[in-house]
Amino acid sequence: MTSPPALIDIGLNLAHDSFDQDREAVVDRARQAGVSRMVITGSSLPSTRWAVDFSRAHPETFRATSGMHPHHATDLDAPTLSALASLAEDPQVVAVGECGLDYFRDISPRDVQRTAFERQLDLAVRVQKPVFLHQRDAHEDFVAILRDFRSRLTGGVAHCFTAGVNEARAYLDLGLYIGITGWICDERRGHHLREVVRHIPAERLVIETDAPYLLPRDLRPKPASRRNEPMYLPHVLEAIAQTRGESVVQLAATTTANAVRLFNWTT
Ligand SMILES: [Zn+2]
Predict the structure, then answer these.
(1) Measured in angstroms, how far is the CA atom of residue 41 from the centroid of ligand 1?
(2) What pTM does this model have?
(3) Strands 93-102 and 62-66
(4) Which of 8, 130, 162, 243 is the most exposed place for a label (fewest CB within 10 A)?
(5) If you measure from the C-alpha of residue 266 to the centroid of ligand 1, how many angstroms do you get, rounded to a whole number?
């Protein structure tokens, strides 16, 4: 049996403290599962600093993003923005974000979220790197802001996509890639996503675990811990391949090539 081509996890929160005790083992298990490269999500100034340092120390396996999650939008004052901006220039940083809008949890006020989002889109334009995007229950404002920046942006990915076909079409029209997580493995919540995933052109699909969040719910035997790990990325890939009626090997090659193109991650 030929093993599928090496995978790229385009989003995992490796700075998360749930990995503090066994981070190296987590990375080893991922590599053994065929996940040869990973992009560490920066979602605050400390997590971005951590992600950049860690990926500098392990450049063959890791890259980082530099950004402020919409939950923390109120933290994006001028000094923080300029610190994230200089980190964004680092060669290890392949995208600006995670940035965007989250009206589902509304942790930062919506007007503050919009301003923080626009500042980070500006930054992406300045450093000419793609954006790593988060959106929940804010589709219309999100698309309106992105449309203003579209012609100047070098690209981007709607990470952890969980919305419907219309939202997917709007993102594809904006030239974005679409990131699919283990959400698709959820028998109840993921049902509509399986339908949506059939409508995404193969050349725009990328895969991610968003670990330690979003443990696939259909892993058997059920893991003892609810913490997600990058080693489960092949499981997400299989679910997508199955619902699209494609071979795992083919989809592995396509999604890896997409991630390389999106992040300009040549080796
Ligand atoms: Zn997110």
Answers:
(1) 9
(2) 0.97
(3) parallel
(4) 243
(5) 25
